[in-house]
Design brief:
single chain; alpha/beta; Carbamate kinase; two-stranded antiparallel sheet; about 25% strand
């Protein structure tokens, strides 16, 4: 019997500080004692950028998504499935958890088609096959999933980490989806850091029009909305730079931005 599933998206600059990373891994293992089966869906943008710079490759974004040509895809595969996934699984093992690093290519977990030629080899997920993470969870093993996908021809794709985590949470019928980020939540103004504590999905279109939701926040919010529409019970964007924010959230401490449909938005200006 699998406990309530909580999908944690862990990425961006929140992954850089080793002390914070250590605290996040502690929290993830501790979730097992609170009746949750964690699934760690990670990104690795800083690592990809660093490797691109070493190789003299350009790093650029289109609509908040990393443009991925063939050399960038090779870098993403090496960093995401190799370096980052393996490191996180090892840290979870060190904290007393059982973990296994897989990518979205495993058993066709993320079946993709090309998203749009303007993004290069960025995949749009058209099907999620949960057999690989299901088998791991049944064995009490925490899946550590890299955002890579594959099509019927064996072509691999880079996938936005927030989108992948959201669709994985939906397919697993997760109880919670938590995006650990390097921001305090969705803000009316990044300069003022005035957080929208509760975002009703009906207000998303107007916030996009006003530019409150833009850039890298676009795929985050779109994924969160899709997760809610697919039955994920609660979705949260919280600051992964705050030590033990994940376990605090699960224990009921209000923080960041909660996304849902149960009440009117709180904090929109």
């Amino acid at each position: 019997m699998i406990d309530k599933i909580i999908v944690i998206k862990y990425g961006g600059n929140a992954m850089i500080n080793e002390t914070l990373k250590d605290a996040v891994m502690e929290d993830i293992v501790a979730l097992r004692e609170k009746g949750y089966m964690p699934v760690l869906s990670h990104g690795g943008g800083p690592g990809i950028k660093e490797m691109q710079e070493k190789l003299g490759l350009e790093s650029r974004f289109v609509d908040g998504l990393r443009y991925t040509d063939e050399p960038t895809l090779r870098v993403a595969e090496a960093v995401l499935a190799g370096q980052v996934g393996t490191e996180l699984a090892a840290l979870l093992l060190k904290k007393g958890g059982k973990a296994a690093a897989i990518s979205g290519v495993a058993s066709g977990l993320y079946h993709c088609r090309p998203m749009d030629e303007k993004y290069g080899l960025v995949g749009e997920i058209d099907h999620v096959d949960t057999s690989a993470p299901d088998a791991l969870m049944e064995a009490g093993i925490i899946p550590v999933v890299a955002p890579l996908g594959v099509d019927d021809n064996g072509q691999t794709y880079n996938i936005n980490g927030d989108t992948a985590a959201s669709l994985l949470a939906a397919a697993l019928k997760a109880d919670k989806l938590v995006l650990l980020t390097d921001i305090v939540g969705l803000c009316n103004s990044i300069e003022k850091l005035d957080v929208i504590s509760y975002l009703n999905t009906e207000d998303v279109p107007s916030l996009k029009e006003k530019g409150v939701i833009s850039g890298g926040m676009l795929p985050k919010i779109d994924g969160c909305v899709q997760a809610i529409e697919s039955g994920v019970k609660s979705v949260h964007i919280i600051d992964g730079r705050t030590p033990h924010s994940l376990i605090s959230l699960v224990e009921g401490t209000p923080m960041g931005t909660t996304i849902g449909t149960e009440k009117a938005s709180v904090g929109i200006k």
